[in-house]
Amino acid sequence: MPSPHDTLAPLLSAAIATAFGDEHRDADPVLRPSQFADLQANFALPLAKRLGMPPREIASRVVAELDLAGVCSGVDVSGPGFVNLTLADSWIASAVRAVSDDPRLGVAAEQERVVVLDYSAPNVAKEMHVGHLRTTVVGDALARTLEHLGHNVIRQNHVGDWGANFGMLVEHLLAVGEGSEAARLVETDPNAFYQAARDASESDPEVMARARARALALQERDPETVRLWTYLVDLAKHYFNGIYAALDITLTDADLAGESTYNDALPGVCAELEAKGIATVSDGALCVFLPEFTGREGKPVPLIVRKSDGGYGYATTDLATIRHRVEDLGADRVLYVVGAPQSLHFQMIFATARVAGWLPDDVQVVHVQIGNVLGEDRKILRTREGKALRLGALVDEAVDAARGVLDEARPDLDPGTRHTLARQIGVGAIKYADLSVAHDSEYVFDLLRMVSLTGNTGPYVQYAAARVRSIFRSAGVQIGVGEGEEARRIVIGDPAERALALALLEFGSVVRGVGSELEPHRLCAYLFDLAQTFSAFYEACPVLKAPDAESRESRLGLCATTFRVMEQGLALLGIATPDQM
Length: 581
Description:
- Residues 481-487 have low confidence and may be disordered.
- Helix 6 (165-176) packs across helix 9 and helix 17 packs antiparallel against helix 21 (549-573).
- The radius of gyration is 29 Å and the shape is flat.
- Among the domains are: 4-87, Gyrase A, domain 2, CATH 3.30.1360; 163-249, no CATH class.
- It has helices at residues 4-20, 44-51, 55-65, 89-101, 131-148, 165-176, 185-188, 190-203, 205-219, 223-247, 266-275, 314-327, 343-356, 391-409, 415-435, 447-450, 458-475, 495-504, 507-517, 521-540, 549-573, and strands spanning 30-32, 39-42, 72-78, 82-87, 114-118, 152-156, 279-282, 285-294, 300-306, 333-339, 364-370, 373-374, 443-444.
- Strand 8 and strand 9 form a beta hairpin.
- The protein has 21 helices and 13 strands.
- It is of the alpha/beta class.
């Protein structure tokens, strides 16, 4: 189901080629919404210099060659050479019905590619905090969208599950005992377990010595130490999964690919870099110096792949990871949903992998940069004690806030229904607030605004979908099921019907844009605009009290398509569509 843009662009290109020759077919007929018509095409101004002709004359000659029968009801040239295009009501009605009849609602499946998507990445035995919200929510929305577009998405949760700290954690586990209440804090309050382990090692030199020995034993794969480490990781999985379940995140244990996964590959990574002359020893450390990365006074910035003490760091693991994702997983596209401050690190990783031959030119790799979540003071959101806000607590606060709104707005609902709706609305509110902002931008976390039923919020969009459900409940028919022989026939008459129909036709191109540009906020903006457009339609065009049966059926068809688009769009963002609000 082509959108108006997808329909008109090739027709304009063909007309340009007919008017001025095939060599000008590549001229991009840029189409944008206009106050004068549905779409305005700007191709004459860019072509004017190439052809040596006045833009208005170019536009007029192209319009003369346009065959828009059945597509447009009006075409005219305005200004210095813009072409205004008004779509025919009959074409809009036919296109919307095609979208409605399409199970994919106009979202065409793309040629399948293997997309490896790295997101969330918490640490074992540490609390998931507000900093993990965006990497988790944005990554999951991209995973859902890319899968819907037909790609093979391989989720990778690059958990921090290796390193010197685990010697300390294993020793503390031995001290408190497996199965003890203190050990099970890893499932419920991992920061408490971590802090207790740290306090014990820092306050007692003997404990610290045992922790260091235990870390070495872990690196050497001592069976008992590995068993204890596995026990801690399994407890942490329960904790992660609780958070993911609360946020309706699609990550599972099968997606875990922690640092430990690549530990055995690290010596080989260093050896290959050194053998190829890409890495050299500097002050005892093995480093990669690439000419495009320099610091002050033009001095080269090193990427350290092996420390002077023989240990490995994030750079080594990330290089082993990217090699695995290309060579073993067969990635065509690798996406890293990671905080913006890691930009330089990933630039150096990608560049080194390219030079090493581990990242071919035909494999796209993207750092999807994530901005910070800020408090009202415009600083990184923290608790009153100055600690990073726990993600679990954040979800609970959102659900409580949504419940407060429901208690006031819908006291008629039974407690069980309000409980379910509060979770759907509260979780949807924080996810939408996060996703509606460009992922590389910061935003202020304002819970009261997030759960509001007005403004650009998740609850506003959810409410619009719930309103459609209520229309069909009142009509006594199921959404999308007609009442007669003319079931689902769309007729465009009122300007509000036209505006809603045009909005519905853009869904496919918006979803494709999210997949190509990796920007979920585009879908949020679309759904908000659609909700507003539907609200205007609802006020202007009575549905159940339409003037005649044809109008009633047509408007029910528009409502049904609106609901399905909203439900699918919210699902791609990982947000529920409540039955009522």
